[in-house]
Write a sequence for this structure.
């Protein structure tokens, strides 16, 4: 009985690979089109033609283009969540460069999608979810990053930090990611710990 179960699982592997390949092709085509137009102007027809995927196959996986974007964002947010939660408070307190380097490495691995989501034709809802994800972590464990003891000042200080990090990412993408994730993370740490004067050291 156990043997037949193993064989059955093995037989499904090629199907699973095809599904992953199909979804990857659709996500890649979506990011390509979002560089040219807003999500509301992208049709299933042009998306599937670019991905070389049958429209019927598309509807097996997604309800519409918005559903594809939503699931792509959810997958990316899960990766951010896992990356952020892989660093404990003591580790980050000692050297926050490790945390930022992990985040920037993830951004580099998903550069096409992240560039779109935080760019001109991006999705403000995604940014807000990402901000909330990091904010909750700061409130729970990383209050030392903001270096603020007054709760009334937290939201303003946090908004300043997150806005700065997003601007750093946008500049990094637009400049061709010349700096390594480690270099960008070290710059972020210096700015947060000592202000712009620290970048001259």
């Amino acid at each position: 009985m156990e043997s037949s179960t193993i064989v059955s699982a093995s037989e499904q592997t090629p199907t699973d690979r095809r599904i992953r390949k199909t979804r990857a092709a659709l996500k890649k085509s979506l990011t390509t089109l979002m560089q040219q137009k807003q999500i509301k102007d992208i049709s299933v027809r042009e998306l599937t033609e670019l991905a070389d995927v049958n429209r019927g196959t598309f509807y097996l996986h997604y309800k519409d283009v918005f559903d594809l974007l939503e699931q792509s964002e959810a997958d990316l947010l899960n990766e951010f969540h896992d990356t952020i939660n892989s660093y404990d408070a003591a580790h980050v307190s000692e050297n926050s460069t490790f945390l930022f380097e992990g985040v920037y490495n993830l951004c580099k691995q998903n550069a096409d999608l992240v560039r779109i989501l935080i760019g001109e034709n991006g999705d403000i809802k995604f940014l807000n979810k990402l901000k909330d994800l990091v904010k909750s972590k700061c409130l729970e464990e990383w209050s030392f990053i903001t270096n603020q003891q007054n709760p009334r000042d937290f939201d303003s200080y946090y908004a300043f930090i997150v806005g700065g990090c997003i601007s750093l990412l946008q500049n990094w993408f637009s400049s061709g990611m010349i700096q390594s994730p480690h270099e960008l993370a070290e710059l972020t740490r210096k700015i947060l710990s000592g202000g712009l004067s620290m970048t001259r050291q």
About this structure: Residues 1-11, 196-201 have pLDDT under 50 and may be disordered. The first helix runs from residue 2 to 34.
